[in-house]
Design goal:
Blueprint (H helix, E strand, L loop, with lengths): L1 H14 L7 H10 L4 H19 L19 H6 L2 H12 L5 H12 L8 H14 L4 H12 L8
């Protein structure tokens, strides 16, 4: 499923196409790319749930959040997000790329992925997907994009 999300994200962001509009056409394109129906359905539901996080009538993630909080991870979250990933999320908050609401959206989307543990590189892609889908986070998205694509080679001293 994560491979499909990456495929969609890379093609949508890079091509700026209208691929999101028609689920049937999107499914056909993903089938032509070699993905299986079950995985396609799960990926589309994951994206729909991401969209719902912003407009949920019960408790939207974007509204009603405090500006400062300390995140205590559950056992399940700690298994899926190791200390390096948790530290990276904290770093993104400290440099104001994530706020409380977007951090919680990222954690929610990570927990819905089928992988037992999320690698840091995969977490960065989830953060990009969340920021891309949240109105008003264009600058944070661009900065995060730079973190993902412009990483220096070699050891930093």
């Amino acid at each position: 499923m994560f491979d499909i999300l990456l495929y969609l994200f890379e093609n949508i962001v890079n091509d700026s196409s209208e691929i999101w509009i028609d689920d049937d056409e999107l499914s056909k394109e993903l089938k032509r790319a070699g993905f299986h129906d079950d995985d396609i359905y799960k990926a589309l539901m994951w994206l729909e749930d991401l969209s719902d996080l912003q407009s949920n009538d019960i408790v939207p993630f974007i509204a009603g959040q405090t500006s400062v909080s300390t995140r205590v991870y559950t056992l399940e979250e700690s298994i899926k997000l190791d200390t390096q990933s948790q530290g990276f999320l904290l770093f993104l908050e400290q440099v104001n790329l994530l706020d409380v609401a977007t951090r919680e959206m990222v954690i929610d989307r990570v927990m819905e992925l089928e992988e037992n543990q999320i690698l840091l590189e995969d977490l960065k892609w989830v953060v990009l997907m969340v920021l891309f889908n949240v109105p008003g986070k264009e600058s944070a998205f661009e900065q995060m994009e730079n973190l993902v694509f412009d990483e220096p080679d070699g050891t930093l001293h």
